[in-house]
Write a structure and sequence with these properties.
With 290 residues, the protein is of the alpha/beta class. It has a single domain (1-290), classed as 2-enoyl-CoA Hydratase, Chain A, domain 1 (Alpha-Beta Complex). 47% of the residues lie in helices and 14% in strands. It has twelve helices and nine strands. The strands form two sheets. The protein has a six-stranded mixed β-sheet with strand order 1-2-3-4-6-9, sandwiched between helices. It has a three-stranded mixed β-sheet with strand order 5-7-8. Strand 3, helix 2 (73-91) and strand 4 form a beta-alpha-beta unit.
Length: 290
């Protein structure tokens, strides 16, 4: 099957999905559906040991397409996006993300949902959704379990961007390597798993997840209900997304204080706390905050 937004390879137990939607791999519905088609095809594949997510272009992924997150498209986008994680959860194989440069919003959720994540020194991680009036459902489910409640609260509620080194320190990722060594270090990280039994890997991963006594599906359903039935019906969520697309400051109905002091993830002037690199990414229309 030919894909427009990803590249796919399967060889000797290693399935690779390469994000390839230049320049910054914005995740739109079409791209999500291509990823889902591959993950669906790999369900029950007995010789599958590892699923590797990597990327071409300027970065791993700068986020999801805000233009497809508005109005009637929002439930479809959430459904397509969250199906990626439901299918990953059902695979049983070891999932790995190899990250460089911006890994933000939905791109960050994809990377940190993987069992193992390796990043180059250039990696930047964050969930800036709250700055445009929404929150990241997958991160809300996953981060408290991965890095603890307080660290998760900090990252999700502030929307701040962190370096690869800080992501490593708090346990969000597994390893940081030099930029030029990412590919070879990723291959080296995969090597120990490739010599193991695919069936034993699946059962061991299943045991680890069961040991946590925390099923992914029920908690995600509860978060989705808040997101679609409560958050997306608020004026502030619609205003935040619309303001982002229009490159202007959001006017929050709930607090004039927040409206006047929240750092903008785009626009004119000098948005405090956002790097020049990220501001340049955010200048692209339809891009989820990066």
């Amino acid at each position: 099957m030919a894909y427009q937004n990803i590249e796919v390879d399967f060889k000797e137990g290693l399935g690779t999905i390469t994000l390839n939607r230049p320049p910054v791999n914005v995740l739109n519905i079409a791209m999500m559906e291509e990823i889902n088609a591959v993950l669906q095809e790999w369900q029950g594949k007995k010789d599958l040991k590892i699923v590797l997510f990597n990327a071409k272009g300027k970065c791993f992924s700068a986020g999801v397409d805000v233009g497809e997150h508005m109005g009637d498209l929002a439930p479809k986008m959430i459904g397509a996006f969250h199906r990626i994680f439901r299918l990953m959860d059902g695979l049983g194989a070891v999932t790995v993300a190899s990250v460089f440069s911006s890994c933000l919003g939905g791109g960050c959720e994809l990377a940190i949902f993987c069992d193992i994540a390796i990043s180059s020194e250039s990696g930047k991680f964050g969930q800036p959704e709250i700055q445009v009036g929404v929150f990241p459902p997958i991160a809300a489910q996953l981060m408290p379990r991965t890095i603890g409640r307080k660290a998760a609260m900090d990252l999700i509620l502030s929307g701040r961007i962190i370096t690869a080194e800080e992501a490593l320190r708090i346990g969000l990722i597994n390893k940081v390597v030099k930029n030029e060594d990412l590919e070879t270090e990723t291959t080296a990280m995969l090597k120990p798993y490739m010599g193991l039994s695919a069936e034993v890997l699946r059962l061991t991963k299943k045991a680890i997840n069961k040991g946590l006594m925390d099923d992914f599906e029920p908690s995600l359903q509860a978060i989705e209900k808040i997101y679609l039935d409560e958050l997306m019906k608020t004026n502030d969520a619609q205003e935040g997304l619309k303001a982002f697309l229009e490159k202007r400051k959001a006017v929050w109905k709930t607090s004039d204080f927040l409206s006047s002091t929240l750092p903008l993830p785009f626009g004119k002037g000098k948005p405090e706390g956002i790097s020049a690199q990220l501001r340049s990414l955010l200048g692209r229309p339809g891009l989820m905050p990066a």
